[in-house]
Fold this protein.
Amino acid sequence: MNQAVSNNLSFKEKNRERNRRYRERNATVISERHKKWVEENREKRLEHQRRYRQKNRELLNRKNKEYNQINSDMRKEYTKRYYLENKDKVYAANALWRKNNPEAYRLIASAARARRRAHKYNTRIGRIDWKAIHERSGMICGICHGPIVGDFDYDHIIPLAKGGPHVTENIQLAHPSCNRAKRDTINYRPQREIVRSN
């Protein structure tokens, strides 16, 4: 019995060694074959990767978080060096992304401004669920209660300047004009009455 296990192990080791030597001798052929397969099966590969990421989202997030914590200094240094060496390329890519994703850029820019103001006023900052804010508001202005058509602002119900936190529960949609008129007041009432159509 032990002899059979020993023979089996030695067969596996011999097979592994033979495969390793084959890969060394034929590295170029294998590489070209792989490149060709990737080109011919690009869509299939992308779909497989997408399904894998969906199925293993929690595991991948945990691994990424661990990796980022361990390598945060290295990643910051790499990002900084890449930016300094490729400023024009980075600016062009960012401009193209902003042009193609105006709503996403608007959210990011709005969140960044709010975080800066929250730090300035030393208020609590939490993770914002923008989708929940939109669902809760139903595209109705939180200040004048009129329907929002077109452009809108994100308004802090209790302003950051008055100690309001930067959290989902303290943010509402508002007309830009209403938000500018409200400024940093609490319990602001608009001058004009809004008549909503039923």
